Amino acid sequence: MVSGGAGRSADEPVDIKVGYLRQLPSKLRLSLIDVPSANDGLAGAQLAIDDNNATGRFLNQRYTLVEKVLGESDDPVAAMNALADQGVSFIVTSLDADRLLKVADAGQARAEVFINASALDERLREQDCRANVIHVAPTRSMLADALAQYLVWKKWDKWVLFKGSHEKDVLFAEALRHAATRFGAKIVEEREFKDSGGARRTDSGVAEIQRQMPVVTQGLPPHDVLVTADESEVFAGYLPFRTWDARPVAGSAGLVPGTWNAAFDQWGAVQLQNRFTRAFQRLMTSQDVQAWTAVRMIGEAGVRTASADSGKMLAFIKGPEFSVAAFKGQKLTLRGWNLQLRQPILLFDGRNTVSVSPQEGFLHQVSALDTLGLDRPETKCKFK
Predict the structure, then answer these.
(1) Residue 204: what pLDDT?
(2) How far apart are CA 103 and CA 365, in angstroms?
(3) Residue 206 CA to its chain's centroid (Å)
(4) Rounded Cα distance, 326 and 334, in Å
(5) Taking a C-beta distance cutoff of 8 angstroms, is the pair 303, 55 a contact?
(6) What DSSP assignment string belongs to 214-246?
(7) Cβ(186)–Cβ(158) under 8 Å?
(8) Which residue blocks in 57-204 are alpha helix, DSSP H?
(9) What contacts 80, CB < 8 A, 6 or more positions away?
(10) DSSP secondary-structure letter at 347?
(11) Which residues does 76 contact at the CB level (< 8 Å), separation at least 6?
């Protein structure tokens, strides 16, 4: 992680290298305006490197980002080793769960530390948790709980759950069921939308969708809201204003939970949004802010320990004094039992931030943020 050594003069900055190991995001989206940029996430990490250097220079620290991009058939372990060979000890990842576990297990022998900025999978914080993997990306249960708290606060507690047929959809549906039970909502019916393949965009698409969506939502029992689990981007985006009954849509479309959105303007977020837009000529996404936060955690550890030693920095991040400011109205801290970053979750309607969870009145003996996601008594994490 630290370059230099015996040949480095006392005035030369200590170079702290931060790795970023990522796979390119899928461009399959129902809406063209949601297609991610090629640098989605990377741009956030680059901005955070600039922020780290703004404070690190006072301690003679210089942060650099070393990026590796994985293709579908590339070996993630080889890429991780290539980063380690360049002196990288902290690696921010935008990988799927299986690839993240592979590099985490292989990286233990080289004392590599990974900060997950992308994968939502609960198992990475539970039965498959690793002592060398810190999680900035939220879990599906954190997102589902944030949405459920708001819907229950609104007294919209009768839900129809409409789920997709892919594995990620099933996992989000499971999180939504858990959230309903946890906060007192009732799922009055579940329906599945089978992905039959075919083109997502055709010349007759608008007319076809306008006919199809009322039919698939017809005959539902009385309900307040249609809650959707469609991470695969197959159907949920087509539901608002096309359902049989005049009901709001939430979950994967309509009112959507996330860590960031381009309209968020509270707690100084405009300053971060403006700096990002000036630097990259586009709007900041959740993936950008998750990568930004991951790199800022490393910078915070470097400054607070006044050290470039990766062992000392990791001990600080895992310790009780650690926190990171992320324009969320409060400092974010780490859950010691599974290394998940506590954080508020924003609820976005496509144009505005509707609310921020946890909601008022949802209490916890340690932190209200621990009402989002699995709590310590529920955890199955035993670090490997």
Answers:
(1) 47
(2) 36
(3) 31
(4) 13
(5) yes
(6) HHHTTTPPS-SEEEEE-TT-SSGGG-TTTSSS-
(7) yes
(8) 76-85, 97-107, 140-153, 167-183
(9) 21, 91, 103, 106, 107, 112
(10) E
(11) 21, 70, 95, 99, 102, 103
**Grouped pLDDT means (10 residues each) for the chain, 384 residues:** 51 91 88 92 98 94 97 96 97 98 97 98 98 98 98 98 96 98 98 76 62 91 98 93 96 98 96 98 98 98 94 96 96 97 98 97 94 96 94
Please write down the HEC assignment for all residues of 56-95: HHHHCEEEEEEEEEECCCCCHHHHHHHHHHCCCCEEEEEC
Predicted pLDDT at 4: 44
Q: Does the CA dihedral 152-158-162-168 come out positive or negative?
A: positive
CA distances to 41, 43, 183, 296, 370 from 116, in Å: 12, 16, 28, 13, 19
- What would the two tokens of residue 344 be? 């508020």
Maximal CA-CA distance, the chain: 75
* CB 144 within 8 Å of CB 162: no
Per-residue DSSP letter, 359: P
Structure token digits, residue 63: 């942060």
The HSE-up count of residue 157 (CA atoms within 13 Å, CB side) is 10
**Phi first, then psi: what are they for 181, rounded to 5°?**
-65, -40
> What was the pLDDT predicted at 85?
97
**Bridge partners (DSSP) listed for residue 144:** none
Write the single-letter amino acid at 62: R
CA angle 273, 42, 170 (to 5 degrees): 95
Q: What pLDDT is stored for residue 6 in this prediction?
A: 45
CA of residue 263 relative to chain centroid, distance: 17
